[in-house]
Records
---
Amino acid sequence: MDAIKAIEKRKSIRSYVSKPVETDKINTLARAANSAPKSGGFHISVVTNTSILLDIDEKALEAMKNSGNDFLMQRADTPGYRPIYGAPALFVISAEKGPYAQATASCSATAVTIAATALGLGSCYMISPILALTADSGLPAKIGVPEGYTPVCAVALGYTESEEAFATPHEVSDNINYCE
């Protein structure tokens, strides 16, 4: 799939099948993440270990319940809700502290979501796993976040059950203007 088609078809997926993502696809996604525009250092932790994924999921859910944020607490109280949606792979993107950390990490995450779509994988850009990594001070080291780096965002990855998981191209809407 070409890049424009992948961008147009990309959609946030919130339900995954348990099939693991192949190592060659994980490696392709890691290269895409590392090729994104950046300003400052960043690090990608690729998590496929089932017990670590479950730990992140459970700690994120608990952190959401205790966050004091009405939206997060309501979401966490939804029956059956799981913060990483059962994804078999999670890319956690960390950056050096600084004014461009969020932009650098988000560019990397965007590259992963587009590449995942091109590879026939579902993906979801998310912040909720960061709550787990903040709540448990040992968890960042467990997934290899370097000293001096802060987890900023994550991308859940995996296979989905249907093609409906991918978006149909959007028409140009009224939120774009051209200054010619």
---
Amino acid sequence: MTPTTVIEIGRQAVEVTLLVSAPLFIAALVTGLLISVFQAATQINEATLSFVPKLIVVFITLIVAGPWMITLLTDYMQRLYSSIPGIIG
């Protein structure tokens, strides 16, 4: 197992992690931005107002993007496990 192989496996792991987490982060970010604009326009300064809409949007995003996320993770795991003999030997 060479250092290049270790770096490549780590790079792929980070890439998969970013791809899986991106839809949830983007949904929460957009929701938070919209709620913040609404709060600024109406001058409502309630910190907990954005929590429930973010939670709902992230949950809906997880339901919609969940199958794609699971497929991405299982494909990565299968590639990783199938490459073990080549890495060891």
